[in-house]
Amino acid sequence: MPSSFLPSPFPPSLCLDLRAPESHLVGVRLRYQPSRRQLRFALPAWTPGSYLIRDYVRQLEGLVIEQAGVEHQPRRVGPSQWELVLPGLEPLEIRYSILATELTVRTCHLDGDHGFLALAAVALELEGERWSPHRLVLELPPGWRPFVPLPADPEGTWTARDFDQLVDTPVEVGPHPCHSFSVAGVPHRWVSWGRTLAGNDPVEEDARWLADVEQVCLACCRLMGVERPAADHYLFVLHLNADGYGGLEHDTSTVLQYGRRRLARPDGRRKLLQLVAHEYLHQWNVRRLRPAELTPYSYGQAVVIPTLWFAEGITSYVDQLLPFSAGLGSLDGLLEDLGADLSRYLLTPGRAVQSLRQSGEEAWVKLYRADAHSPNNQISYYLKGAVLALVLDLHLRRHGSGLPAVLRHLWQRLGRVGRGYREADLIEAFAAGAPDLATLLPAWLDGVEDPPLAEHLADVGLSLESRRSETVWLGWQLQGRPEGLTVQRVVRDSPAQRAGLTVGDELLALNGWRLRQSEDLKAVLASVDPGAPLQVLYVRDGQVRSADLQPGPPAVEAWSLRIDPGAEPAAEARRQRWLALECP
């Protein structure tokens, strides 16, 4: 805190009025007593854990300041920053509304069924008050309950120790049931908004759900080498909607979004447990064991973070192993999930363009702004980070160590004391377990070559098996629409790109045969000679065009992970320890 600022004798109080949910407007009243006449304040531009400038100010309206019965209009000095010279130091009230119409885990949504607030999109940061306590007050419709991951005050409000903790507090409200359980004696709550396809509360429908979540949480503790969670209390909020997927981590809570149709699939429950594991582990990795660039957070601007491969990649790798290590799920299911991620990685051409370090550094402008061309020039640090984490784990095991040992070392050395890590700290920790990683790891981070997957998988008796397409390779991905087939994606350096086709082209005919749906295309391709040129008729910008398309031989369309029947017996023992997240 700058020395020129003194904490207010009456800390900021944020009152949120959600009593008109049909308007989708959250009424905000921010009250405090200033300690100086120069008033400056700003609304955060992003929320920690989601590396995209979201410009939350787009949803703010009706800003006014009232002091001693007189209204003042502040002067805007930036897109989301204001200032005002006050006539005196009497208590003041800042009023505005937030339009809450976007249902994600990092935005705000309010309707007749529930309300969800990501407070980075709601709470103004007052200059000089960042490290002051902030009081939170909620005004709710009749019958609604608040679910807030802060200890409640006796008067039914909440107090965050500072602005950072306030921003880190997701707020869910509504007439939802709340289910309590504990993890190693630490109280936990589970709140669901939304129903399963059968119309039930998901926890009430699944009698074993909370017990299995508890086991996943305990597996996270074992992975980090601790007896108890890092948080003294914890809140899970699940938004069960039509087709959503995602989560956002907080110090003492997480918000999950999951599709009810996903949950009804054979692998739906397993995938949701993996999402639980991912976000729960973040209370260590990311929240407390944090990149130095995020210590402290800078809410008004993007910050280059070279180590997102560790923050998200490591977590994405172990989130599949954690439920299995807790005794939940089958080996076949786990290998299917690991294989699906490896297949997605190997079929992404952008991995040969963007390095893993670049993926993290460019997260603000690429990963969260993906379009139809993104697979050609970028690779997700979640995905490649998970692939590298697998290789690192197996490489460490060759040297008598393992990824769990590295995580525990970093937690004890840095995470427990809140010291942010830099890439040099990570490389040092990995090299302590395998000295050659001091050279190999930087090369893998900077290069665009695949890490040595096959040889490390062989250590645990696994191999990758490819499946090729039954037809020639054209290098496009099509989308069926009522008007016909449209090009949704074109692979770089593919036959489709060389023929001049691009995203958005509407296909009319192939070799003189009319195309209306995918089955029409399959029928034509099944009848042509492999390698023979094809004539494509398509529409672009209202004009009918034609192109000659020279197909390539059938390409790999998927990879799967298989147990190698010819592997040495010791490989099975190594595989069992690896999948159980046990170090040698």
Task: Write the topology of this structure.
Blueprint: E1 13-17, E2 25-32, E3 38-42, E4 60-67, E5 70-72, E6 75-78, E7 81-85, E8 92-99, E9 109-110, E10 115-117, E11 125-126, E12 134-139, E13 145-147, E14 158-160, H1 163-167, E15 171-174, E16 178-183, E17 186-193, H2 202-205, H3 209-224, E18 234-241, E19 245-249, E20 253-259, H4 260-263, H5 268-281, H6 308-325, H7 331-346, H8 356-361, H9 374-377, H10 381-398, H11 403-413, H12 423-433, H13 437-446, H14 453-459, E21 462-468, E22 476-481, E23 484-490, H15 495-498, E24 506-510, E25 513-514, H16 518-527, E26 534-540, E27 543-549, E28 556-563, H17 569-579
Helix pairs in contact: 3-5, 5-6, 6-10, 10-14, 11-12, 12-13
Main features:
about 30% helix; about 575 residues; disordered N terminus; Neutral Protease, domain 2; alpha+beta; seven-stranded mixed β-sheet
Count of distinct strands? 28
Helix content: 25-40%
Which geometry do the CA atoms define?
globular
Given as residue ranges, the uncertain stretches (5+ residues, pLDDT < 50) are 1-7
Characterize the biggest β-sheet. Answer: 7 strands, mixed
The tally of helices reads: 17
- Could you name the CATH class of the largest domain? Mainly Beta
Strand order of the largest sheet: 5-4-8-2-1-12-14
Mean pLDDT: 96
Number of domains: 4
CATH topology of the largest domain: Immunoglobulin-like
Which range does the strand content fall in?
25-35%
Q: Terminal Cα separation, in Å?
A: 47 Å
Radius of gyration: 27 Å
CATH architecture of the largest domain: Sandwich
Which class best fits the helix and strand makeup?
alpha+beta
